[in-house]
Amino acid sequence: MITGTLIYTWFKGEQVGKDQYGNRYFRNRKKLQGRERRWVMYKGANEASKVPPEWHAWLHHTVDEPLSDAASDSEAWQKDHLPNLTGTTFAYVPRGHDLTGGKRAKATGDYQPWTPESN
User: Where are the strands (E) in 3-116, listed by range?
Assistant: First the structure.
């Protein structure tokens, strides 16, 4: 399906780069009211959490030019991207949640409620 963003990108957009997830980043060929418009065309589902930090900074005009490819190289201590699973069948559901049967462990008696001191 052809969307308005795709048509706008064909006529007005200039591709600036691509990230390791296949997302493509664009800007207007001409500035509008003194500022360039920037946007991303996602590969696959439109999920904002798939935008790496260096491209996020560029999209939000924190930096003027996109960072180099070397900036997107991850360090040994960095974890790979995990998609936002909220609202999916793979979302985290803690023990005792209604979706897991609603059974919680009984209280152990170590809880002491706060009560105001009488003066």
Answer: 13-18, 24-28, 38-41
How much is the pTM?
0.64
Under 8 Å between Cβ of 65 and 53: no
Handedness of CA 77, 81, 86, 90 (dihedral sign): negative
Percent of the chain's residues with pLDDT above 90: 12
Q: Count Cβ atoms below 10 Å from residue 19 Cβ, excluding itself.
A: 18
**At residue 106, what are phi and psi to the nearest 5 degrees?**
-65, 150
Classify the C-alpha dihedral 56-40-90-88 as positive or negative: positive
Residues forming a β-bridge with 40? 25
Token pair recorded at residue 14? 């200039």
Secondary structure (3-state) at 48: helix
